[in-house]
Specification:
By secondary structure, the protein is α+β, with helices and mostly antiparallel strands. It has 15 helices and 13 strands. 44% of the residues lie in helices and 21% in strands.
């Protein structure tokens, strides 16, 4: 909750989602739609560090609607959140193993069209069980609001959240059997019963979206028993700085044509050991600072904070020297959001390659 409060105070598109909420399982046969999943993410972003408190939270309809003129979809999303049940392992009053079933939203108020109109608000409260889970969560994922709203597959959004939750762990992987995979991604048991279908319709599409919109990439490995796929292992890796810059560019573009850009890359550059799209957008404000030539410790508070948070305890100037060497002449052209994103991505990849400093 301290991280959530700090990100909210900072502003921008990043927000923290508790790991307990990300990993909560749907009751068998149920799952949230993509639009309801987005609304839940916006609710957690809006609540910030206060999400665990017994109090109402509020958000403008305009922040949810994203250009839709009517409010019917907002009503549908709220009702879906109310009726969807989640399940966690628990203990009964006798100390026996039990399953706790609950919803995340206890009540909500939506201003009517007459009262609210285009400037209308919704108000909601999290259930006591949800607030307890949020407060008790010892892990969190830092998500990007533009990425969350940009996904077109609910399975891609779920996998994105799982990846963001594990990205900075010593082993940035997720592994499970087919039942665990379906539970984690919210895939109904009667859908994609053939694994070849599941691979084509779910895994490949989710990977394509994540590789385009997230600050990391995902790969998976199929563990077989004979000819049958018994388990799946996902591996999440931070992107290189140039790839992070391209992702920031893509998130700034209109979503129209995103699918074509995803599958029809015009030009790629070999950077390090990976191929990434060449950035095409114009730079941001010209008066914003470029990456420092000297020590990063003086006059660059935001970059210093990113290095300390994501640099794994390594000397910040050592990582900065590696960043300048890796980027070459391009480092002089980085500004604002792109600079911060590229620097953060490099810090994360530094820790992935070398481990955390002792």
């Amino acid at each position: 909750m301290r991280v959530a409060a700090a990100l909210r105070a900072k502003g921008g598109d990043e927000f923290a989602k508790p790991g307990n909420i990300i990993e909560v399982k749907f009751v068998k046969g149920e799952s949230l739609s993509l639009t309801a999943s987005r609304l839940l993410a916006l609710m957690i972003l809006t609540a910030g560090g206060d999400a665990w408190e017994d109090k109402p939270h509020r958000i403008r309809k305009a922040d949810i609607r994203r250009g839709h003129k009517g409010n019917e979809r907002i009503t549908d999303m709220l009702e879906e959140l109310h009726r969807t049940l989640f399940a966690v392992d628990d203990k009964s009053w006798r100390g026996k193993k039990a399953t706790l079933r609950f919803s995340l939203i206890s009540r909500s108020r939506e201003e009517t069209e007459e009262d609210g109109g285009e400037a209308g608000w919704i108000e909601w409260e999290f259930t006591p069980d949800a607030r307890k889970m949020i407060q008790a969560s010892e892990t969190y994922a830092v998500l990007n609001r533009q990425a969350v709203l940009g996904f077109r597959s609910n399975y891609a959004l779920r996998l994105y959240e799982l990846g963001a939750l594990r990205l900075h762990r010593r082993q940035a992987t997720w592994r499970g059997d087919m039942a665990a995979l379906r539970a984690a991604l919210g895939i109904p048991p009667e859908v994609y019963t053939d694994f070849a279908q599941l691979r084509r319709k779910v895994l490949e599409k989710a990977k394509a979206e994540i590789d385009q919109l997230a600050h990391f990439r995902v790969e998976w490995r199929e563990i077989r028993q004979g000819r049958t796929v018994a388990e799946i292992e996902f591996r999440f890796e931070p992107k290189s700085p140039p790839a992070v810059i391209e992702t920031v560019d893509e998130l700034d573009r209109h979503s129209c044509g995103r699918g074509e850009r995803r599958y029809e890359m015009v030009e790629t550059l070999l950077v390090g050991h990976g191929a990434v799209c060449a950035p095409t957008n114009a730079l941001t404000k010209p008066d914003e600072k470029t990456f420092p030539r000297g020590s990063i410790r003086f006059g660059h508070d935001e970059l210093l904070a990113i290095g300390r948070t994501h640099g794994g305890g390594w000397d910040i100037d050592m990582i900065a020297n590696g960043f300048r060497e890796h980027m070459g002449e391009r480092v002089e052209k980085l500004r604002g959001v792109k600079l911060a994103a590229a620097w953060k991505g490099f810090c994360e990849s530094w820790v992935t390659r070398r481990g955390r400093a002792i």
